[in-house]
Fold these 2 entries.
Entry 1:
Amino acid sequence: MTNSTEISNSDTPMQSFSLQNLFKTLSHLHVVVGTLFIATLYVTVCNLFFSEGSLLHVSDYTVSLFGKYLCYALLALAVDLVWGYCGILSLGHGAFFTLGGYAMGMYLMRQIGDRGVYGNPDLPDFMVFLSWTELPWFWAGSSSIVWMIAMVFIGPGLLAYVFGSMAFRSRVSGVYLSIMTQAMTYALMLAFFRNEMGFGGNNGLTDFKEIAGFSLQDPNTKLALFVITAIALAIGYWVSNYIVNSKMGRVITATRDAESRIRFVGFRPEHYKVWIFVVSAMLAGVAGALYVPQVGIINPGEFSPLNSIEMVIWVAIGGRCTLYGAIIGAIVVSYAKTRFTAIMPEAWLFALGGLFVLVTLLLPKGIAGLLPNLFDKLSIFQDEKVKKNT
Amino acid sequence: MKQIFSVLLSCILSWQVLASTQDLDAFQRTDTDSDLSQLVNQLPKTKLKKMPSLVEKIAHINNEKTHDVLQFLLNGELFYTKANKTVVHAVKADNSLYVLTDVLTSEMLVPVEKSKLRKVKTNNRLRGSIRSYIAKIDLTDEDKNIRIKAVKQLLDNPSDSGLSAVQELISKEKDKDVRELMNITLLLNQLKKGKHAEKIAAITQLEDTLEPSVKNAMVSMLEALPTESKTDEQKALAANLSKVINNIESKRGVFEVIENIFFGLSLGSVLLLAAIGLTITFGVMGVINMAHGEMMMLGAYTTYVIQLAFPNLIEYSLLMAVPAAFLVSGLVGVIIERGVIRYLKGRPLETLLATFGISLILQQLVRTVFSPLNRQVQAPEWMTGSWVINPVFSLTFNRLYIIIFSLMVFFTLLLILKKSSLGLHVRAVSQNRDMARALSIKSDWVDAITFGLGSGIAGVAGVVLSQLTNVGPNLGQAYIIDSFLVVVFGGVGNLWGTLVAAMSLGSINKFLEPAVGSVLANIIVLVGLVLFIQKRPKGLFPQKGRAAD
């Protein structure tokens, strides 16, 4: 069994996409990172060196939009890691994403300094408005970028650790677990909506001015954020790929398929589950942190259960159990959403709902499941059949 | 010194009561012959000096408009036009014009500027007597509720003239409730202004009264007493007062708890209706129906459509809506089961996603058809109002009916599952699908019927919800997470578990709410449930069976 999974992971449909001899040694990792690199380079060059009228010009708006999509892709990667490889259908990944976003948002709030409406150098506007006189304890250190980066990992990671270790130790699984994760993000949403929580309540955190000294309004900063997001996605992909191909990844996949057997063999599946859950939560947190400066706001609405379910559908449409499928799904669905909501806003929910139904009914393996068949038919794909590791 | 003063005071008081009693003897509103309009039309011409006698005459006319005329006069809203001396009720509108209503004919007149009007003159003394006339008119009204309202008003803002009227009328009052209220009013007055012995007597008699104003009066009296160097009388008074106040407090506390339980049960019965359909579909088919909330929404919209279709039958609309909503939602449920869910057998997580997609489609469908705005569903007459048990405790009829109704639905469902052959099949399939199939039970058919039944009950829940909240496309989403939690808490597929879970979650929520606010109460319940699931992953009452996941 180990043997076959190894083959299917390293030997991919995309490998023989073109110039077979040259690319024969390439893996998914190379293809995805390469594509990402080329796309990023293209956007960067077209944004910087082609003037506005030019056909090849990529506008600043589009750069931000692509940056947003890449954040979603990283998030989808995180969801796929737990759902596709560990069988944990988390309907609460939005919570980790938003927590990461709030960690970044707090830092950006402090960067505003005395340029806020009330001009208070220490307190963000909403605290002045609530007539608070000093920062709450959990805002301590939020003005430091190092602390912020640490919190982006620690915040979601800690929540995932506490929740995961409680849930997995008592063997809550399947639908129960999904409902519990949904309840978790719902409770957080209700909590963050309260002004007393000290996170800006209903309005969330917004009106950001600059990040690490660079103005957020500057197109170059936006481009830099986009490039950083692409790099983060590449690293996230590398990490996920490394994990699922490691020995630990095999145990995790086996846990998904037959948890009891793994337990009888002598492993402690709950430890592996908690571990992958925490890693996934951290990836989601990073995605959230990169998302906030690019959209300019974070509010409790991001916690809403609907958002978390949308993330799951990215993975389902892209194809679970394939890391690149998650990325494709996130980008395709988000792009469709942008287009649809612009052209006919009413139709978007119909389309999204229809996608849910049709993909689960007709495309259990998602878009990524289509690709090998496509290559098969075009007979570009040469020697061995693709084996899916499901 | 104080004693002398209080004696003096009581003398004055009794003289006043006496004086106004005489006044009241003459006060018989039997004068139906004199024309109200004739007297009212004299108002513009009468000088302030002669006003009291005119007002007195008006007050004695037994006409339903008398009250209004006096009230307008008291509020300073009674005017007459300079042109033809018509007496009108005038209220300033937004555009600085005055909106006029003829007080006699109730006819709306053309709005005019202030300069065209002149106010009917009154002074403080006149206003005082008008107030007492109004009190007397109300106290002798034929409608019991108006009498109660009048006495209550006196209880909150006592006036000498009103009190004397009450004293006179109490012996003639036939209704027990009104008489008791009148008695309390008099006792309260006695407590405030009587002699020491009278005060003590009043306190003991008021021991069981729950009227808020009585308690407030006692508390302020207790606070007004000097803290140091009391006389013996004051000590006795203070002791009596604090004893009775404590007594009243503890009684109110008991009723507060009962009220919270009632609110909790009514919230719980809504949750029960919402969750019970979910628990049977989950129990039998092992699938989570994320579109369950939208089935409720469809039920609520069915109520709305029925009220639109039969605007003359609002009183019966709910009775018609219950079966209609059951059919509509049940039919949609069967279609969903046949169209989607049966192809996803054994893949619960995919089912969850697919039904979520369906819920999005249904929401958008409703948004497109009925507009995204909330729709108002009218409450029939018999659902409004409340059953007043005592001043601090009353049950609103709609909540009461909802509790009764949801229990009826619950027991009907229980009966179906335990006693009918359909129920037997459903239970067989939920316990062991393969074995049931081997015994020639059509499990596909059972699935479809179960799903239809569960969805139909959700539709009925929607009818109930339409009476409590606004009907909008997001109606279902607001309740879906709560009903999932009820199912998980109670144990999947267990009807009794669902009942216990729904009622206890509802009550816990309502008990936490006054202490920490509704949002925090919600959060505490959610966190508590997450912790509970750690301890008992299969809920309060897990299904018994051999199936080890």
Entry 2:
Amino acid sequence: MKITLTVNDEAYPLDVEPRRVLADVLREDCGLTGTHLGCEHGVCGACTVLVDGKAVRSCLMLAVQCDAKAVRTVEGLAGPDGEPHPLQRAFSAEYALQCGFCTPGFLMIAAGALDADPDQIAGLVESNICRCTGYEPIRRAITHATRGDD
Amino acid sequence: MSLLCIESAAEYCGRELTWGNLMRQWTRREDERLLTGGGRYVADMAVPGCLDAVFVRSEVAHGVLREVDCAAAREVAGVAGAWSAADVPDLPDTPYTLMARLATEEAVAGREWPVLVKDRVRYPGEAVAVVVGEDRYRAEDGAAEVVVRIDPLPAVVTPSAAAEDSVRLFDDLSNIAFEGETGEPIEDAVWRDAAAVVEARYRQQLLMPTPMECRTILALPEGDRLTVWSGHQAPHRLRAELAAVLGWPVDRVRVIVPDTGGAFGSKSAIFPEYVAVAYLALKLRRPVRWIEDRMESMLTATRGRGQDQRVRLAADADGHLLAYELAIDADVGAYPHLAGAMPLQTARMATGVYRTPRVHATVRSVLTNTMVTYPYRGAGRPEATIALERTMDALARRLRLDPAELRRRNFVAPESFPYRTPTGRVYDSGDYAAALELALETLDYAGWRTEQSRRRHDPAALPLGIGLSCYVERSGGEAGVLHEYGSVEAHEDGTIVARCGSASSGQGHETTFPAFVARELGVDQRRVRLVEGDTDEVPDGVGSFASRSAQVAGAALRQACGMLIEEARVRAAELWELPVAEVVWSDGTVSPRTGGTAAMDLGELVKATGPLQAENRYESGMGFPFGTHAAVAEVDPELGTVHVLRLVAVDDCGVVLNPMLVKGQAFGSAVQGLGQALYEGIPFDDDGLPRLAHGLLDYLVPTAAEIPPITLKETYTPTPNTPLGAKGAGESGCIGTPAAIVNAVADALRLTDADVLQMPLTPDVVWRAANLREAG
């Protein structure tokens, strides 16, 4: 099936099997491997990306459902000049990642909420799994980034 | 405090610590790529022509394999091949672990672990066929067409049941695959004459390590060599084991560990699937990968813990410990090949932090119809600590002594080190009372006791309890794996390459080791780069497990730096025709003591005198980190819920290379310890199948919603066993935290029978315990 995904403002005209999930298409067809698969059943949240600004588990969504939609992944988080997103800097400053595997999912779920409704952020962090940090550094990082501390 | 101990992120970064400064840099070298989607895990590698392997797995726990037919699978579009064991008679078996006596030859004798089941299924999910396809979708299409027929047999899933041998995993052999003991048997009179004897039974439930990245391997044949990428903790071990399986010399195998998404002990071995992938890559002369998915990992990744324990603890009327006995029936899973003897490590640590004169621990490693038990963060030490510390609280209740006071009366004293325990360990150094007192003060122990007593007189208040857990653990590894490779090489351009045999799975080696080497040499850390996790680039190595990298690899690098400095002085002396004693090393430069010739930077020296490298194989002694964890928990007896109000973790791991990273690991491991205490466990159905149909909705690892306020503190007692003084870090929370939480719940409920509280403390378990109390 022919679709066009717009990922991080770039158009990807693709011919994909309808059964392929968004995460696989992002990783294998678009070559954007920053989106990770941690459970493939929608619980861990490592594969979270933004579709039309809303956070989704890309392991539970078919790529064909995103035809003509705008997808944002961790590769598109930095500014156009390459300046890191405040969340990326805050995660580093707070040691909010260790192995880094779950990190793109936390960044994207926080980025989506930061744009939409910062009050939601604390609760949203509870929806993803990190096995390394114990979450507290992630919470601190997101809080700092939300407040725009400098 | 040692000069090596870096006090803050600011010092680490060499700048003033302000939020603004931190926001303009990356605190770890790993961070830029991992935060921007540039990380490179095995599944991210695009290797042209790479095939995906998918395993067809048994849906029963125990059974006789009657038929596997792969013919239909081979007809599926995009499938490159499908095989049962009968189709590949030359497929090697899964080898057993030679390292650190984790497994023994006697235990595996007569017990073959085929990579694909030949005639008998022994654990749910055991692979009966493998299918490779152009991508994962095609391979799964093929796997769905494989016809499998298995006649089920009764299954045994607890060591106590399996030890009866009424159901045998190997027909002519007992399920008891290994027996061992530490210490001497304790005569009856000791128990008879003691003022107090406490007995209890504990279940250390099976846990799943659950790194966020499951297991991964990609094998690429090139010429007469095989290159393997794997998320792994011990690349040189994987190289040696793959080479042995293939009957090759080790230099024909190259193992590369790229970014690894967590491990926690579970990625240090060779697994049946890895043997299959290497074999098929060579058979097909094509790259083949296996990227384990979560649901298959829930059946077939190694588990941790898994012990049924019986304990007896005797004391005199003043609370001085007289004797301790620990009997372990350990669940080692269906095959003893990876870690059948590992439970002996619990027996060795049975003494704990106390100067108990008589301690005896026995181990039976029992085969069950579950995937193999293997090290998981803590690996044998949590089981020892939890059994003893729960029993200490039960004894304090019996003697009507404050549990803190009971511990104070029994600690091994600081002047007693090195201390040889009755169970065969020689503790290096410690100040156990200091850790306890700091934990009590940090927690406000007296204040919480007051609050507890107030609540006991307030019928409307929920009961509250305080739990203590004093631990000592072993870091660095066991005999045979206490060494590590470390080298430093100076280049003409002034850069320095450090190499070590460790492999990071999230611990930040790329940041920590170059900074450490830079400090040792007195150069800017930007000049130093780390190379690890590639067996072609690092000639030798052991790996990253048993909290050993800072302790052993750190010490190896420190010595290598010292050797490099000496060699630099010798060369400069020759160059300048001076005695070596007249050449001074300072901040990365050599200079004549008396002045004259200008100082020469290391890079200049290499230009003048040729390549300069110092290689070191360092052999460490064991380290014994210790600490006290303390928890306050509120229990709702009607709902069975536990609300942890405070958790304090005081840890001592001696000299710290990077305090921010050590704190991060301490916090993360405390949360994993919380998971063992309250949430994580594997329930089984009568047919031996784990009830995990909904994956991570059934196996509950803690989320951000479950994290109590946690305060971390440190005491500082270097190990005298290495020139660096670092003890292992990173496993403390899994070891110290669970008993603190369980003890707090037992204290809240004023339980006299410890057996009724078995982890995880789900609402069901706690409700029953609370209502038993009320019924009693």
